[in-house]
Amino acid sequence: MRIALALALALVLVAAVPAAAARRPSPRAQSQAVAAELARDQLVSCGGSHGNAVALTFDDGPSPYSAAIVRTLRRFHARATFFLVGNRLQYWPKAARLDASVGAIGNHTWSHPDLRRLPTWLVWLEVVQTQAAIEEDTGVTPVLFRVPYALHTLRTDETVRNLGLLEVFWDVDSQDDLPEARVSDVVRNVERGLRPGAIVIMHDLHPWTVAALPQILAAIHKRHLRAVTVPELLAEDPPAANQRCPYSPVAGD
Fold first, then answer.
1. b vs e for 218-243, b when ≥16 Cβ sit within 10 Å of the residue's Cβ?
2. CA 193, 195, 199, 200: dihedral to nearest 10 degrees?
3. Is residue 136 exposed (0-12), middle (13-18) or buried (19+ Cβ within 10 Å)?
4. 20 to 30 Å CA-CA from 107: which of 11, 12, 148, 243?
5. What is the pTM assigned to this prediction?
């Protein structure tokens, strides 16, 4: 009887493991997918449209809200990508490791400047200094980069690419960075764009983003989609050659 009960319990526990975790691409597959996009020499704004994965991304962390975001992601068995600002790591020294426990870590520069206004050597320093700080905090070297304010040029793109980083944008804007944004608006903005292959931008440092996240994750589940990291999305469902995303960033001069 005890053996039968133990077997039944084991089956229940196995069934409770999220399907997303079972299907997660291997680290090698993810690295190869990122390398393939780098080789294409294109900016990434979305994945393909043949799977059921979406990538939630959070900019501007860490912040006082980082731990709450991680807790919510864990509760929904969801994963995400965090683009961290280097000079903020010292204020929340445990946040980067928490973020890494539920997803991927990306580079969002050291001080969040307008890179277009900086000489090339300072652009390089903004990125390299952040790489070192994240690696020291987490033991992980980022392979993803997001430019502050989406302001970039061919020159800044080349600097980032020469450092071996894939530049990631988005095609669904939550608009949670608007002053005093409302939770309902943030949820609605994301829901409108939810589809296979979407990359969603949110921000780590707003209380309304924390409040909106459970509803966003519930909407993802209701549509039979899965919240994954950017490398996982690229490994599962990469964008097609010359695929146009709803948001297609264009570099300046």
1. eebeeeebbbbbbbbbbbbbbbeeee
2. 40
3. exposed
4. 243
5. 0.90
Those residues with Cβ within 8 angstroms of residue 163's Cβ, 6 or more apart along the chain or in another chain: 124, 127, 128, 131, 145
The tokens 């900016």 sit on which residue?
43
CATH code, residues 42-236: 3.20.20.370
pLDDT tens for each residue of 108-167:
999 999 999 999 999 999 999 999 999 999 999 999 999 999 999 999 999 999 999 999
Residues, the chain: 253
Beta strands 80-84; 144-145: pairing state:
unpaired
Domain ranges of the chain: 42-236
Per the CB < 8 A criterion, the answer to whether 96 and 84 are in contact is yes
